[in-house]
Amino acid sequence: MLTEILINLFERDLSRLEDEIAAYETEAAIWRVPQGIKNSGGNLCLHLCGNLQHFIGAILGHTGYVRNRDLEFSSRDVPREELLVLVGTTRRTVLTVILSLSAEDLEKIYPEKVLGEASTGHFLVHLCTHLGYHLGQINYHRRLTQ
């Protein structure tokens, strides 16, 4: 049951992430950082994809993904189409890995020490809320830069 909930939430919010990136009026607006804002929508998109590709893809799915967190926040002017491809790739990875997890896997302690000693299921719920939090920031950023 938790697997189905996670699939639905990640599918919904990664689709919304694609919609948000596609909805920017211009590619330049994706990368604008207005006064009082720390990150562009593009950097938040890169961060979300890097986060999910690392914690779900590499750690749980053994995909071989190597994260460069600094680049998630320092990269600039990545084309919109490239961001959308990245979100699509991330979605496929996340859904494939979660579908492969058994109920027993979800009860095990997550293999990397984060949030103390959380179960894999608990940590996946945390990743959903992290995605939702930054998705809201991207929505605000997009409307602010229009």
UniProtKB/TrEMBL annotation:
InterPro entries reported in the protein's UniProt record: DinB-like (IPR024775), DinB/YfiT-like (IPR034660)
A Pfam family it matches: DinB_2
Domain of life: Bacteria
Alphabetized Gene3D superfamilies for the sequence: dinb family like domain
Residues of the DinB-like domain: 10-138
Record's protein name: DinB superfamily protein
Source species of the chain: Chitinophaga flava
